[in-house]
Design a protein that fits this description.
Blueprint (H helix, E strand, L loop, with lengths): L3 E4 L1 E4 L2 E9 L16 H26 L5 H14 L4 H11 L4 H17 L4 H22 L13 E5 L4 H6 L5 E6 L7 H9 L3 E3 L4 H4 L5 E5 L4 E4 L3 H24 L13 E6 L2 H10 L4 E5 L1 H5 L7 H15 L3 E5 L26 H7 L1 H14 L4 E6 L5 H21 L8 E6 L2 H5 L1 H4 L5 E4 L1 H9 L17 H16 L4 E3 L10 H7 L3 E4 L1 H11 L4 H12 L4 H17 L1
Helix pairs in contact: 1-2, 1-3, 1-5, 2-5, 3-4, 4-5, 9-21, 10-12, 10-21, 12-14, 14-15, 20-22, 22-23
This protein binds phosphoenolpyruvate and magnesium ion (MG).
Length: 579
């Protein structure tokens, strides 16, 4: 086939060339339905065949990879075999099919989770890690039973460009970074959570490519340009050469940025701006430190939940938070409490579907309702706080009462720990996100109640401009350069400084070099962003003068439209580049 080009939305930069791997979420069988007693034999047989095939597959894998993998990696595969031949695991699944009349898929999930949870709560770290073996074995069985996905995400074992209808945040966190060169999806917007995770995984990505699944075929060659949002299938040799050149230029720029990455960020006239990282896991923490992050401005703890099949207990969370605290110590890590709901659904939490999930049961609202879930997390964060410098941040606070309730929950967790004689940092800072317009408008009141603010523009934009952040049909309206957004930020920043607390930003706007001068002019003290922007933003800050940023911000808040602000920022940027 001849060369074809597709325009989407570039969400994570980088140029990659590779073979297409198509992935589409199939319609899942109705696993929740109970079977009829007369179906029990047939369903048990179906399970038995799946179990035999799973063992065969694992044995073949061991034979195929022996000598090529390290002993550690091989033992992970062997672990699956051990689980599949365990005297309790498969029999218990069979029992649920026959006695409880569960579909095999449901029985496998249930037993797998039960065993994984048992392992996860063990004291011994070796045994805790066995939980992953149980889940691998369970996923293998589920893959065979649903006929879905062995050709799917978990089974990808060579470098590909993944072309999918959509990837949920939990799909994204499971992608194997070694094999996914890049990904392209039909759905998604610039700040949908999937795009955010792509950036933090540093996987080049383009979303919003309507029709691409139909238009390309498995194994076809594709070039993906994550900065320009372009995909080119079956590229001609001239196109390949052009993109190789572009790729080379990008690499040179990266080298230039990395040179200033390890110094503190300061404008040319001496204004200090803390450049921090948005992370979702310990792996991100380690990576961001290398990129020059001076702190963690946002640790999205929901990834700890999204990457599991059941709610992580206090001990698991404590271990994860502790590792991150230690990795960053003495630098600060702002741990955001669970922000689930909206476009981040966690199946095991059983959140009912809603007509307007972004306006519904989400983030702090859910945590205040599910006290046990919230207390477990708060205790884990507090326990980890003595291993570094942690701060706690509440997401999506819309009003004073909500903030007061969240703080009361934190106090309760502190009191409990104190009673139990468990040490924690009793001077831990508490902050809140400004991502709902009501919070920005009430910032003078709220500033008296917290130690810091952090502006979450991803949500602030969607709530103030009434534009769903993940809906590509209205993505033309979703623009953080809107003067209304600048006004809300300015109002919040003035309130923060009048009350002597710092204000950061952890929404995606903070990592956009075009927006950085405006943000500095609006008074932001800290900018926190995805890993791949840190070095460049530090480099750009060094070329700015604080005074001109302030003048720029003053003009921006008086503009009439987002377009006018964008043009203003583009002119400013070309002035900086020329000078
Ligand atoms: C935001 O809303 O800007 C933010 C940082 O939070 P999230 O993207 O996780 O909703
Ligand atoms: Mg948010």
């Amino acid at each position: 086939m001849s060369e074809r080009s597709f325009q989407g939305i570039g969400v994570s930069r980088g140029i990659r060339r590779g073979k297409v791997c198509l992935f589409q979420h199939g319609t899942k069988p109705d696993a929740e339905r109970k079977i009829q007693p007369r179906e029990a034999d047939a369903e048990t047989d179906r399970f038995n065949r799946a179990a035999e095939r799973a063992v065969r597959e694992v044995e073949e894998l061991i034979a195929k990879t022996a000598g090529k993998l390290k002993e550690e990696e091989l033992s992970v595969i062997r672990g699956q075999k051990t689980i599949l031949s365990d005297p309790a695991y498969c029999p218990e699944i069979r029992k649920l099919i026959r006695e409880e009349l569960l579909k095999p898929e449901k029985a496998v999930s249930q037993v797998t989770e039960k065993y994984a949870a048992i392992f996860e709560n063990m004291q011994n770290s070796y045994m805790r890690e066995r939980a992953a073996d149980v889940r691998d074995a369970g996923n293998r069985l589920l893959g065979i039973l649903t006929g879905a996905d062995r050709s799917g995400l978990a089974a990808i074992d060579h470098p590909v460009i993944l072309v999918a209808d959509d990837l949920s945040p939990s799909d994204t966190v499971q992608l194997n970074r070694d094999f996914i060169l890049a990904f392209a999806t039909e759905k998604g917007g610039k700040t949908s959570h999937t795009s955010i995770f792509a950036k933090s995984l540093r996987i080049p990505a383009v979303v919003g490519l309507t029709g691409i699944l139909e238009a390309v075929s498995d194994g076809e060659e594709l070039i993906l340009d994550g900065s320009e949002g372009i995909c080119i299938a079956a590229p001609e040799p001239d196109t390949v050469a052009e993109y190789e050149r572009k790729g080379e230029e990008e690499r040179k720029k990266e080298e230039l940025y990395l040179r200033s990455a390890q110094q503190d960020a300061r404008t040319s006239d001496g204004k200090r701006i803390v450049v921090a990282a948005n992370i979702g896991s310990y792996a991100d923490a380690a990576g961001s430190s290398r990129e020059g992050a001076e702190a963690v401005g946002l640790f999205r703890t929901e990834q700890v939940y999204l990457s599991r099949q059941s709610s992580p207990g206090e001990e698991i969370q404590f271990q994860e938070y502790k590792k991150i605290a230690e990795c960053y110590s003495p630098r600060e890590v702002i741990v955001r409490t669970l922000d689930i709901g909206g476009d981040k659904n966690v199946k095991y939490l059983g959140i009912a579907s809603e007509a307007n999930p972004f306006l519904g049961y989400r983030a702090i609202r859910l945590c205040l309702d599910r006290k046990e879930l919230f207390q477990t997390q708060l205790r884990a964060i507090l326990r980890a706080s003595r291993y570094g410098k942690l701060a706690i941040m509440f997401p999506m606070i819309a009003d004073y009462e909500e903030l007061a309730a969240a703080k009361a929950m934190l106090e309760e967790a502190e009191e409990q720990l104190a009673k139990e004689g468990i040490p924690f940092d009793d001077r831990i800072k508490t902050g809140m996100m400004i991502e709902v317009p009501s919070a920005a408008l009430m910032a003078d009141v709220l500033a008296k109640e917290v130690d810091f603010f952090s502006v979450g523009t991803n949500d602030l934009v969607q709530y103030s401009l009434a534009v769903d952040r993940g809906n590509k049909q209205v993505s033309y309206l979703y623009d953080y350069c809107h003067p209304a957004v600048a006004r809300l930020i300015r109002q919040t920043s003035e309130a923060a400084h009048a009350n002597h607390i710092p204000i950061g930003m952890c929404g995606s706007m903070a990592g956009d070099p075009l927006a950085v001068p405006l943000l500095i002019g609006l008074g932001l003290d800290e900018l926190s962003m995805a890993l791949d922007s840190i070095a460049q933003v530090k480099y750009e800050i060094g070329r700015l003068a604080f005074e001109s940023c302030r003048n720029l911000a003053e003009t921006a808040v008086n503009c009439k439209s987002a377009r006018e602000v964008r043009n203003l920022l583009l002119d400013f940027r070309s002035g900086v580049i020329r000078s």
